[in-house]
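Figure 3 (text version): structure tokens given as input.
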């Protein structure tokens, strides 16, 4: 019975965590237990256990009324996460290029190109799908659990600023991913690195994170 209970709580925990990282819950939003029980069709007990786990992981906080809230955005923390994400992504691509055959590189590039060309319209959902698929494909390919865990954790904690930013710059990011997949296929690390640094420089210089943090306070 203990195994079943743990698995059940894990499922609820992941559902709530996904809603936070997918921006369905915004920073500083109260997580009402009664509403969550209705949304997830579960009792309050696994909801509380899941929220306490997320509290320990600092995805949520407790307010003055003892209720649970998603964390507000901290400007310094988000800038550090952006920098860490840049460093990790560059490391992941270097590892990927060093250990992957040309056939697999071609296949990777083809999948990204197909995803970009799947729809003619450039919308927020499309760029989010391309961004997500790029991450999944490259993390699966490097087969490094520790590096994948670090990068995934970084993505989750930086999800809201990142997704709102790429949605606002969808055309730019689709062009970037198309070029990046081409450079990866050609094993052109120099131009790939230049491209990635340009993305993160654009984000840091845009005041986007600073403005989001002000709104969430």
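Below: residues designed for each position.
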């Amino acid at each position: 019975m203990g195994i079943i209970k743990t698995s059940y709580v894990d499922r609820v925990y992941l559902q709530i965590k996904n809603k936070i990282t997918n921006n369905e819950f915004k920073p500083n939003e109260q997580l009402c237990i009664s509403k969550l029980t209705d949304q997830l069709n579960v009792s309050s007990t696994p909801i509380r256990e899941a929220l306490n786990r997320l509290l320990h992981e600092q995805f949520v906080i407790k307010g003055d009324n003892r209720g649970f809230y998603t964390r507000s955005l901290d400007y310094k923390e988000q800038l550090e996460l952006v920098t860490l994400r840049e460093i990790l992504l560059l490391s992941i691509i270097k590892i990927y290029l060093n250990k992957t055959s040309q056939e697999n590189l071609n296949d990777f590039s083809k999948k990204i190109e197909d995803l970009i060309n799947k729809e003619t319209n450039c919308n927020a959902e499309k760029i989010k799908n391309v961004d997500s698929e790029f991450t999944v494909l490259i993390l699966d390919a490097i087969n490094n659990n520790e590096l994948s865990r670090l990068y995934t954790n970084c993505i989750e904690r930086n999800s809201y600023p990142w997704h709102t930013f790429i949605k606002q710059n969808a055309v730019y990011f689709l062009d970037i991913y198309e070029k990046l997949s081409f450079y990866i296929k050609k094993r052109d690390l120099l131009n790939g690195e230049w491209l990635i640094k340009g993305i993160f420089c654009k984000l840091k210089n845009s005041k986007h994170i600073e403005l989001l943090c002000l709104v969430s306070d």
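The chain has eleven helices and three strands.
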